[in-house]
Amino acid sequence: MKLLLALLFAIVLGVCTLALLALLDRQADRAEWNRLTSLQPTGPRLFAPEMVADLPEPARRYFAYMIQPGSPLLPVAEIDMTGQFSLGTKDDPRYQPMEARQILAAPEGFVWAMRTRGGMPVSGSDSGSWTRFRIFGVIPVGRLGGDPDHTRSAFGRYAAEAVIWAPAALLPGSGITWEALGDDSARVTIRHGDLDQAVDVSVDAEGRPYEVTFQRWSNANSEQIHRLQPFGATMSDFRDVEGYRLPFRVEAGNMFGTDDYFPFFLADVTEIRFPRPEP
Asked: Which residues pair with 17 in a beta bridge?
């Protein structure tokens, strides 16, 4: 009987510990979300083409398409999405329906909170500081972060996503430089503290970006060794949002542009907002 009670106590203690850990994770998500929201300017400047007049022509075309003249420059964006997220490999993708919400505040950080629908439920979040996912809401299946490799990899992600969903964060200024790559492509380099990331964007004749590529610091390879390797995304279904034209369909994955390309992230955006901090 004592052994049975001890076993029962250990099980209850383990469940309570996992539940507490999940609660603390959600609190950390909210705290970081609120911190990033507070970075939104309360008295934003208004976009004018003169702000990008000295940039290479493909970059000027990009901004002319993405931001309407007179729009408030709001670099912090919230994105709600559904779609599919792969829990497998290229040969066996095991796509799962997912829904997620994200706050994007380049170059300071991001939070992406996701949960799958169908099959074994997976939920959790990515940020500049952690990757934490659980099954059934409490059982950890991945806890990463707090090291230079994770920080560098995460920075590459949200720098590239700024090109997709937060163009106001990429106007020329401190830590942001642009250069031409060709008639229809440009490279933006984002620097923040000890981090820097170059992101290439291809645009059509109107300036609509259709492809974003960069070299991401990643261990998504057979050796599971961190190294630079191609990552990229395609964008479509652009819609008007508060003076911006932003894509509502994005597909992204590792080894972009090679035979090993695997789009593990297929997102259909349901809403994009530019949050205002509380007074």
From this structure: none
For 244, the domain range is 2-273
Q: Has residue 278 been placed in a domain?
A: no
First to last CA, the chain: 59
Q: Look up the CATH number of the domain holding residue 19.
A: 2.50.20.10
CA distances from 128 to 136, 149, 191, 194 (A): 24, 11, 15, 14
Burial (0-12, 13-18, 19+ Cβ within 10 Å), 140: middle
Tokens for 254, please give them: 């590792």
Q: Which of 21-30, 101-110, 216-225, 265-274 has the lowest mean pLDDT?
A: 21-30
**Domain count of the fold of the chain:** 1
Give pLDDT tens digits for 152-201. Answer: 999 999 999 999 999 999 999 999 999 999 999 999 999 999 999 999 99
Residue 43, domain member (yes or no): yes
| Residues 248/83, Cβ–Cβ less than 8 Å | no
Residue whose structure tokens are 């349901």: 270
In this prediction the pTM is 0.92
Distance CA 160, CA 139 (A): 31
Among residues 38, 56, 44, the alpha carbon closest in space to that of 172 is found at 56
Choose among 273, 14, 43, 267: nearest CA to 139. 14
Per-residue pLDDT at 20? 64
Is residue 71 included in any domain, yes or no? yes
Tell me whether residue 279 is in a domain: no
